Amino acid sequence: MHGVEVADDSIESAVSKILTCTDHSTVDAQLLRPVAARIAATSGVYFRFASAPRADCYAASYSYAGDTPEAAEVYLDHYFRLDPVVRSGLRWLHHPQAPIELVSGLSASAVDLHDHAYRDAFLYRYNIGHVMALIVPCPIASGPQLMCIGFHRCVDDRPFQAHEVRTFERLAPAITSAMRLLAYQDAERLSHDVLNSLSMSGGVGYVILDHDLAIENANARGLADLDVSPANGTAALLGEVRRLLISGEVSGQGGDGRNVFTTGGSRPLEISVSRLRSPGGRERYLLITSEPLTARLLNASTRLFALTDRESEIARLVAAGLCNAGIATELRIALRTVENHLRSIYAKAEVSSRTQLVSKLLRLQ
């Protein structure tokens, strides 16, 4: 192709279109093409990289404008780690304090000898002779993101000229804003999806308290765990958490940045307290509620062994140390009924004694 063309390629028009890029589906039309037209590039590409826990980085999304879209896929499959333009950016993903060059220009003929595989097998293969690129680091709560946007000319074309580099630098603030907005929107959607999943699954609860320790946000499980009444928003357990925060017994600043404690009562509850900062800089607290590990293991085991509701109750009481007579009293059923249920539980769990049952329920064997 002989350049990516749009109807109006003025600086003002390009900036306007760039700043309306608020979704990945519009990156081609509102980001890549306006910039490519303004600097007479033959193709343009956008990548967003993220780092995975205990793994290398990966491309979270990409868009391409030009005649050879397969080049972007080949680049991601085999060559992006060899790209000297993005190399420092990829290092930054794992070490966010590392220096990073934001705007780069490159001619394929100038690629150093260590990158000859990248130059010969990729750049020349796809007729890329000159590159102008912008690297934008974006540290966000869900993990650092690296946005890269590059524009190309063919091997036989003239390099990007000084006035075109200056134009690109003038567009760089708008490009940076648009790419960071895309990353922030993705992070917001991820947070919404995670919180919505927590609310729907019932597995874990959360409650956010503001600087006055009033409930700012919560899911249904968190409110239920803290016995908060929808009518008045009060509960004895929530009051106890507030007392611990006011007294300093719980600060939300433990060894790993949080405090974890377990409540008593007939239904023990594990509460993790972390201190957060609001956008305005004021303190707030995130309470994560869940069953203690023992209760979670018992629940998982009763499901694994396909125990009935009554058998699950009896299995939990066995794990709590009650004898058969104690279980009968607790559940108000006959001793013989307890014994019959235990025989069924032993068969399902493939054990022959109480000790073996408790060990298997708590995954100790």
TrEMBL record:
Could you tell me which CDD domains the record lists for this protein? LuxR_C_like (cd06170)
Domain HTH luxR-type, which positions? 300-365
* Keywords (A to Z) from UniProt: DNA-binding, Transcription, Transcription regulation
Q: What is this protein called?
A: LuxR C-terminal-related transcriptional regulator
Which organism is the protein's source? Answer: Steroidobacter flavus
